[in-house]
Amino acid sequence: MSKDIRIKKGLNINLIGAAEQTTSKAVLSNVYALNLDDFHGITPKMLLKQGAEVKAGEPLFYNKSKENMLFVSPVSGELVEIVRGARRKILTLKILADKTQEYVEHQKLDIAGADAESIKAFLLESGGWPFIKQRPYDIIADPEATPKAIFISGYTTAPLAANADYVLDGKETELQAAITALVKLTPGQVHVSVGKSNTSPLEKLDGITLHKVSGPHPAGLVGTQINKIDPINKGEVIWTVSPQDLIILGELLLTGRFNAERTIALAGSIVKDPKYYTTKIGTEISTFLYASGVSQDKFRLINGDVLTGSKTNPEGHLGFYNNTVTAIPEGDDYEFFGWNKPVFNKISSTRALTFSWMQPNKKYDLDTNTNGEHRAFVVTGRYEDVFPLDIYPLQLLKACMVKDLDEMEQLGLYEVAPEDFSLTEFICISKQPHQQIIREGLDLLHQEIG
Amino acid sequence: MKEKLHQIKLKYRGKKMAPAFNAIHTFLYSPNETTHSGSHVRSADDLKRTMNTVILALVPCLLFGMFNAGYQHYSAINGFPAEFSLFEHFLTWDNFWLGAITVLPIVVVSYGVGLAIEFIFAVIKGHEVEEGYLVTGMLVPLIVPVDTPLWMLAVAVAFGVVIGKEVFGGTGMNILNPALTIRAFLFFAYPTWMSGDQVWVHGAVERTGTADAISGETVLGYLAQGSTEFAYSLSDMFYGFIPGSVGETSTLLILLGGLFLVFSKIASWRIMLSAVIGSLAMGLIFNGIVAAEWIPVYSKFYGLMSFEYWQHLLVGGLAFGIVFMATDPVTGSQTNRGKWIYGFLIGFMSVMIRVFNPGYPEGVFLAILLMNVFAPTIDHYVVRGNIKRRMKRLKTATIHPKVTDGAEALKTETV
């Protein structure tokens, strides 16, 4: 069964430096690290002390509020450092990798015969659970909840992001294993969306409801697809998994090993040879960044894509959920009369002496300059053009800013994640931090309503 | 210069005068700010560019207004040329010179007073100088009569910027359009000066009562007095060779400015289109009343009511108001559906007030100010529609109880 979804509202941001579809093996990193900011809303409780020896897949810490939710080490080695910040908050866990990797061997699960409870218990114990995220609140799924559906988006529209069709290629067995397990976790359907090109390995899987999606970004964001297929109501729960994590989940279920290997895209105009690398979660970014080479010293390195990623540096580590690393120029320079000159080299959603509308397929080299200063919301009607969800974006943002819980709820905050507002943030004339506003709104709602 | 300004900026960071300096700095150079979180790249547009686009659309109206100020003045004295030629009678240095010395001081006072207040507020409140006044300052000279005394204008601008905008928190927070607040202040504070048949043509006021007296009556003024005999043809009205506020007369240039704003996606075409439809609808209703002979010819409303419905768009400030004032995103409706209602009512009310208020035959600014007040209400109901849809969906929601909920329920039962 296949249903077509056509998204009309949106904007494709074409950037220079898309990853070429060849994969190299990245050199092994000495130190691997888990950045705890990746696990939003989790209060970690350490299971091991600094200096302890760990195997790959061995639990490092657990979630304070859900003690059976374990977070495991991506590699085997020595837990060399627990980096703490203000008020002793744990920021990063660093593991010095062994030469030969040893894995924790879990009991293999008979996927076909297992029930939901045993699958949940297996994933929680083996460290696969954090790959499952939930909406509302865009956090790691609550294992006690039952989702009405599970969504997986195999359609990539984000600028320079790793192409899902390419990174999933040849992994059908693992994907099928993960899907078979996920199907058991929900009484509803497992919705999988792919592009129109018929090249996705996800298409042939059993047990899914397939959707063919077309249209500009944000058509590939799972939030857009949820809103079009089966929107979330108050009290309902939907789980989402990104497709590249299905591979790790599938392998975990099939072999009993937590193998943190992942194919990632290194992209961006700064990268001399943008392409794909196979590496592991938590690897030091310099291990593959300098293999491709950078064309200048000063650049912005992003863990993720340019719209939703987080700032990092070559000594930083690949995020838990990221399969894209992007390097773009920093834009910390002044531009003479930048506000009234005609603009040819930047993307714009208007035609106010900006000419990106004339060449929709031209590729641009954008930098991190904000192209203007932070202002109050002034212009109206612009966000709606790039926001395909049946939600009033400006009104929802304002409700979050004034912390009006009733309004937030009624205007549909349960349905969105910060990434859904990445495109409105991109075009925002007042340069407001939309994703941050939504994140804070979600946190407040979660805290107040639970 | 770039380096020097950067050094000064760093030196004064956090100081009281920093916003004032930054305002000038960012005017010269777009700032070196980079993204920190969220979207790492941003589109090319900012508020300055948006405002600048509106100003670009207004410049033709301003230039035309200057020529027209001279043209109306000399024509009122010497009589209108029998054979009108654009280059011989309109685009002349005499006209431009007279227009320049009458209109430019208004522009200077408007920007000078307004921006000074903006800077003072920014320094006191410690926020950046916001760009809202760039457009307001340009709109004000275009919607006042050419002979407005500068001191009146200065008082009105001060009132409009402080009461109309700053007390609400500055650009983006105001309820009423600041330019129209200024216009309304002028009208209600100095009614004898701001209405009547003298103020619209330069020199008419000071010649009143002398042998050289000239008339500065507008088309609407004639109509309000029940007179349908005036010297202006339809093409005069369309091209704008008629008396009126400085920038409002040329429907052609307003139309071009409006098209430019719609094309550049800066102003809402929904508001413009629905306002035009609204004004045509009201005009048609009045024409229908006249055609049905429900009002007698000697009625004081007859002149304006019988005025051909579509010609309302050519005279007075209706076109200018629709294109440049009603589309103000801050004070207008913010939802797309709301914009249709908001625009329609502006057009509808403008013509209604125009006809029923012959004492001052222009209703556009009052209609827009009125709808400014109602815009949040319109939005409220539009947004309610979305919420209702969501609530309806909620009825069919499939909410699964938490695993532990069931267990706890079971526990209480057994106990």
Top keywords for this entry?
heterodimer; A: about 450 residues; alpha/beta; Rossmann fold; OB fold (Dihydrolipoamide Acetyltransferase, E2P); 4 domains; 10 helices; 21 strands; about 20% helix; about 20% strand; B: about 425 residues; about 65% helix; about 0% strand; disordered C terminus; NAD (chain A); transport (chain A)
Question: Termini separation of chain B (Å)?
Answer: 81 Å
Largest interface: A-B, 89 and 70 residues
Task: Please list the strands of the largest sheet of chain A in the order they lie side by side.
Answer: 1-14-13-12-15-10-11
Query: Can you tell me the residue ranges of chain A where pLDDT is under 50 for at least 5 consecutive residues?
Result: none
Strand content of chain B: under 5%
The shape of chain B is: globular
**Largest beta sheet of chain A, briefly?**
7 strands, mixed
Number of helices, counting only DSSP H or I runs of 4 residues or more of chain A: 10
Class based on secondary structure composition and strand pairing of chain B? mainly alpha
Whole-number total of structural domains of chain B: 1
Please count the beta strands of chain A (DSSP E, at least 2 residues each).
21
Question: How far apart lie the N and C ends of chain A?
Answer: 36 Å
Shape of chain A: globular
User: Helicity level of chain B, as a percent range?
Assistant: 55-70%
Report on the biggest sheet of chain B.
none
Q: Indicate the multimeric state.
A: heterodimer
| Regions with little confidence, pLDDT below 50 for 5+ residues of chain B | 409-415
Q: Output the helix-strand order of chain B.
A: HHEHHHHHHHHHHHHHHHHH
CATH architecture of the largest domain in chain A: 3-Layer(aba) Sandwich
Calculate the mean pLDDT score of chain B and round it.
85
Q: Count structural domains of chain A.
A: 4
